[in-house]
Amino acid sequence: MPATDAIAHRLTRRTGEQSYSLREQPFDSESLNNRLLSEIKPLFTRRASKRYGCFADESGAFKGLVLSWLDQNLSFTQFSRKVIEQLAMLMEQQDLETDGHWLFIVEELEAARRLWIANLKQKEGLLLNSDNDLQDTLYVDFAKTGLCACLDLQDIQHPDKKRYLTLSFGFGDRPLQGALMEFVSFTDTVDTQADTERFMGLVQDYSAAMPEENAKRYQKEVAEFCMEQSKEGEAVNYRALAESVDSVAEVGFDDFIAERAPELKEEFIPDRSSLKKYIRYTGRTREVSISFSNESLGKSIAFDPSTETLTLTDLPASLIKQLKGE
User: Fold this and answer.
1) Residues 215, 219: Cα–Cα separation, whole Å
2) Over the chain, what HEC string results?
3) Per-residue model confidence (pLDDT) at position 1
4) How does pLDDT run across 112-168, given as a tens digit for each residue?
5) Which InterPro entries does the protein's record reference (predicted)?
6) Structure confidence at residue 55 as a pLDDT band (50, 70, 90)
7) Region class of 104: left (phi > 0), else alpha (psi between -120 and 50), else beta
8) pLDDT, mean of residues 73-102
9) Is 146 exposed, middle or buried (0-12, 13-18, 19+ CB in 10 A)?
10) Residue 235 to residue 70: CA distance in whole angstroms
11) What is the pLDDT of residue 186?
C-alpha cells in the first residue's frame, strides 16, 4: 500500500467568517503516509453508500486542476492548495458551514494509480507525554471522516471509461452533499440498486424449482456472498459465486444466467440495502422491534397477508421467561 505523496490542508467556514490553513510541503514520513492510507481505505471499503461514476461532460474547476496536475503543470502541493481555495469559494457562495482537514494521498500500485481525498475531523483527547505529564491533545477521529473520494488516475485519461470516480459521504455530510458533488462535477454511471435487484430476481427465478426450504437457503447464501464481497470492496462475479455457493438444482447457476440473461455483465457492484431482505426481515415501531432470518418464514413464523399479521412459534426461552414473569 505505497502512499507516494500526502498532504493536508484545513478549511473552516462559519457564517460570517472563513479561514483556511494551507500546508507548504507534502508530509515527509513514508511510514506515516502509509498509516494514513491504511486507515482511510478500510473505512471507505466498509461504507455501504458509495456512488460510482465519472466527471460530468461539462466538468468544472476540479477536473481542470486534476488534469493540470497529471500533465505536470501543477505540483502535487499546488494542485491540492488550489482545490481547497476553489472549495472555499464554493462554500462562501452557497453559505455552507464546514470545519476539518482535507487529506490528499496518492497511492501507487503495480496495476493502478489512485488519488484519495478525505475530509478528516479531529477529536479532543488526553496524552501522557515522555515525562508522564497529562496534557490535552487533538487526534484524528477516523470514525467521523466525512467525504471520501477515490479517483483512478489511469482511467480518467480514457474517454471510454465511465467508472473512475467513487464517492462516499460520512459523518455530518448531509448539508454538504449537493455542493461537494457539484464541486467535483460527479455524475452517476452505475445504479447498484437496480443491478442488485435484477441479479437477485434471477437468483429467485433460478431457485424457484427447488424445494421451498432449499430455495430460501440458497437465496440467503447468495445474498451473504454478495454482502461479503461488498464489505471487501469487491464486485460480484456470478461465475465465482456459482462455484462458491452450493446448489441443488440440476443446471448450474452460471449456465442458467447464460441461457436466461446472456446480456448480463459478468460482474456487478452489490447494493447492501437491497440484499438485506434476502438474509433477514426487520422492522420496528416505537413499541416493537422485529428481526428474523428469512429461512424462518413459513416454518416457525407465519405471515398472513390478508390480515397483515405474524404468528410466531418456537419462541426463545429467555423471552418466554420474561413473558411469564419468571
Assistant:
1) 6
2) CCEEEEEEEEEEEECCEEEEECCCCCCCCHHHHHHHHHHHHHHHHHCCCEEEEEECCCCCHHHHHHHHHHCCCCCHHHHHHHHHHHHHHHHHHCCCCEEEEEEEEEEECCCCEEEEEEEECEEEEEEECCCCCEEEEEEECHHHCCCEEEEECCHHHCCCCCCCEEEECCCCCHHHHHHHHHHCCEEECCCHHHHHHHHHHHHHHHHCCCCHHHHHHHHHHHHHHHHHHHHCCCCEEHHHHHHHCCCCCCCCHHHHHHHHCCCCCCEECCCHHHHHHHCEEEEECCCCEEEEEHHHECCCEEEECCCCEEEECCCCHHHHHHHHCC
3) 56
4) 899 999 999 999 999 898 899 999 999 999 999 999 999 999 999 888 888 999 999
5) Nucleoid_associated_NdpA (IPR007358)
6) very high
7) beta
8) 92
9) buried
10) 28
11) 93
The residue type found at 33 is N
Cell of 179: 455542493
